[in-house]
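[Meeting: bench + compute handoff]

Bench side (C.D.) handed over the final construct sequence. Compute side (W.E.) agreed to return the predicted structure before the next meeting so the bench team could plan truncations. Sequence as handed over:
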Amino acid sequence: MKIIVCVGDNNAMLFHNRRISRDRAVIEDILRMLSKEVKKDGRTRIWMNEYSSELFRTYSGDISVSERFLEEAGEEEYCFVENVPIQEYKDEIQTVVLYRWNRKYPADIRFAMDLSRWKMVECVEFSGHSHEKITKEVYVR
């Protein structure tokens, strides 16, 4: 699977049920990325849980919402992860898309995967709506 995660400088993902990932520019970038990856059936699916689905409510693409989305996602499908630990799924993950907020935030849940042996294939900075600088990093095994 391919995961998409937004993090602060200390790999913070979530604090007291407050998301770090709310920025229109990031959601727009994710949707552009999905539109470039059309599968043979003409669809690119993104999986998430109910908590995350509100960020994508205007998206007309193929969204699957399930509390077990990390178990149900297919090998080449994307998962948008905000409020669940992913460590137990690390062997199934082939691509990691990290959006870095370049700020320190407190955290209850942190991104805990070690990417030191992964290959970074993309690193782009752009301005967000809520953050002056957002860094997008894409890693593959």
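W.E. noted at the follow-up: The helical segments are 24-35, 50-53, 69-72. C.D. will use this when planning the next construct.
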